[in-house]
Amino acid sequence: MSNAADMPVLRARGLRKEYGKGLGLVRAVDGVDLDIGAGETVAVMGPSGCGKSTMLHLLGGLDRPSGGEVSLNGRRIDDIGERALARMRRTVVGFVFQAFHLMEELTAIENVELPALLAGRSPRAARRRAEELLEQVGLTDRARFLPSALSGGQRQRVAVARALSNEPLVVLADEPTGNLDSAATLDVLQLFESLHGSGQTLVIVTHDPRIAATADRLISMRDGAFVDETRLSGGTTGQLGALVGLED
Amino acid sequence: MGRILLVGRLAVRDLRRRRIEAALLLLAVLDNRHSSALERALGATPRDVSAALAAAQVLPALAGAVLGVFPGGFALFAAVNAITGGDGDRATLPALWQLLAVVLATVLVVAALTALPARLGGRRPVTEALQAELT
Prior knowledge:
Mean pLDDT of chain B: 73
CATH architecture of chain A: 3-Layer(aba) Sandwich
Oligomer: heterodimer
Largest interface: A-B, 23 and 20 residues
Structural class of chain A: alpha/beta
Largest sheet of chain B: none
CATH class of chain A: Alpha Beta
Number of domains of chain B: 1
Radius of gyration of chain A: 18 Å
Number of strands of chain A: 10
Strand order of the largest sheet of chain A: 6-7-8-3-9-10
Order of helices and strands of chain B: HHHHH
Largest sheet of chain A: 6 strands, mixed
Number of domains of chain A: 1
Order of helices and strands of chain A: EEEHEEHEHHHEHEHEEH
Shape of chain A: globular
Helix content of chain B: over 70%
Low-confidence stretches of chain A: 235-248
CATH superfamily of chain A: P-loop containing nucleotide triphosphate hydrolases
Mean pLDDT of chain A: 89
Number of helices of chain A: 8
Strand content of chain A: 15-25%
Structural class of chain B: mainly alpha
Number of helices of chain B: 5
Distance between the termini of chain A: 39 Å
């Protein structure tokens, strides 16, 4: 996972995503340039419909751009085939979604081991890794529970554990606290804080300034383009809950 | 005459069952769109998804076809013979190769019915497939 210091893990140039044609043309992402270094946490904020989720999907190869370039770890992903793109998603990127997107038929631990199994790890190695990750997110005692038996915060922690299954270069999180109450938000915040502390590269799209406060860099987006970029000091404080008003 | 009616009714029922099976297969594939999109988001290739869906449908279909022909078909044949008085000259069992062909054809049709829509769905962007299930 070592990268040359000057090579960004994630790089976009002139990234565009358009829907429709003629008068109905919508530019969801309009000429975005972005460099994200190894170990960096970047928060992207903006009003609903400004294109931030679409941009995240383009960065992770979940969607195809209409124009521009995206490179992950120095390798272009905007022009590769579906199969190569799937393999890249498998090993290089971890996704966390607002709606969790867990497999409802699988238990927590089975959800977490799924990416490792898809990547060709042995069932035993995948299970061991999943156990470690569930321990890391504090859900060892919920490993055999179905998602329907977990709270929203627990589901999102399972989703974060799943995103880490194949030790991705970058974790892309799309509104990870959007469906959570304050207590669960704090849990997930602390989890992201510990990931940040461990050197995990993170891109977090969020409406929530409390999440944004954990980042090294805050990007504001409007109408598909970046309108402001702020480097935050320190990112984390160790007393994040108090900082963002979730604790006394 | 009675036997012809019986065979005709069985054939119609079988045809209807096949149509229902085909519809159910399509529903199964549609029902799996969210899981499939999620698997793709996690790194499964379109081919992985098609193969998994086809296997999930083909294995029970194979078991059904085999059991339907060998104990099932033979039992039905014996029952029809017993009910109608056993006219062995007019009602004969198909040759073994024909029975095997029925099993093979069932498996191939089920595999194609499953894999084709899964393959077509595999070309949709993952985001689109994931979001479609949320609305």
